[in-house]
Amino acid sequence: MQTPPVKDGPRINEDIRVPRVLLIDHNGEKQGEMPISAALEAAEEAGLDLVEIVPNANPPVCKILDYGKFKFQEQKKKNEARKRQKIVELKEIKLRPNIDIHDYDVKAKSMHRFFEEGDKVKVTLRFRGREMAHPELGMKLLLKVKADFDEIAKVEYEPRMEGRQMIMILAPR
User: Disulfide pairs?
Assistant: First the structure.
């Protein structure tokens, strides 16, 4: 014996296999608890479908409505929700330990913009040559970045050395 394929979405009309349902008519008015046969008749009279809205309730809540229109509205809601989602990107700002004040300000302005857009920022501090002898300068600079953006960003990944570079990740608050 083969089981019928499982449909996604709510059960409609004859697919509803419970003896009694709580019916809501097409105007949104509660009609009360009734046998499934009476609910199906009421839906047929209205020329609409009987759709199971809350299957887990006792008795299940069914509503008389146009199923095609209902599916369309649900799809529209899903699409709207998808549009509103913001994908958080990881932007990278590269610095050097002996960066000039103006250059730092330019980088800080970019970081500010990234945080306003809701993106995370990876601050990478590259050491070259003899700069490796003074990692404390790099740590000092990253702590300055951390302090400057303390109000609008939180540290997600504390500053630490990875090879010839020091990395810190900040996320908007």
Answer: none
User: Domain 13-83, CATH 3.10.20.80 — does that match?
Assistant: yes
Compute CA distances 138 → 13, 130, 169, whole Å: 69, 13, 15
* Position 7 pLDDT exceeds 80: no
**How many C-beta atoms surround the C-beta of residue 97 within 10 A?**
20
Distance CA(125)–CA(134), nearest Å, equals: 12
Residues 122-140 pLDDT 10s: 999 999 988 888 889 999 9
13-83 matches 90-172 in fold: no
Q: Where are the domains of the chain?
A: 13-83, 90-172
Residue pair 51/12 in contact by the 8 Å Cβ criterion: yes
Between strands 120-126 and 165-172, the pairing is: antiparallel
Domain 90-172 top-level CATH class: alpha beta
For 19-61, write each residue's pLDDT tens digit.
899 999 888 888 889 999 999 998 898 899 999 988 888 889 9
Which residue reads 């608050």 in tokens?
173
pLDDT value at 2 more than 60: no
- CA atoms within 13 A of residue 125's CA, in its CB half-sphere: 26
Q: Is the pTM of this model over 0.70?
A: no
